[in-house]
Amino acid sequence: MRQLTKIMLCSLLFCLLVVIITAAIIAITIEPNDYKTQIADFVKSKIGRDVSLEGDIELALFPPVTLKTQRIVIDNTADFKPDPFLTLNKSEIHLNAWALLKRKIEIAGIDLTDLTVNLVVNKLGLRNWSDFGAETTQSTINGNSSVIPEFLSSSLGPVNIYNGRINWNDRKSDTQIAFTTIQFNSGPINIGKPAAVHVSLIVSYPHIKSETNLKFDTFLCFDTMLDHFVFNDSLLDYKGYNPFPSGGPLNAQLSMHEIDIKRSIQSINITGLQLAMTGIKLSADLQGETIIDKPEIRSTIKVEPFNPKAVIKEWGFPFPALTNPNALTNLSMDLDVQATMDAADIYHINLKFDNSRIDGSVSVKNFRKPSILFDLAVDKIDLDEYKTLKDSNASRSDFNVTRFTNYLNQSKNFDANGQLRVDRLTYNHTLFEGIYFTLNSKNGIVTEQRNGQNRPKLSMQ
Question: How confident is the model at residue 461 (pLDDT cuts 50, 70, 90)?
Answer without folding.
Answer: very low
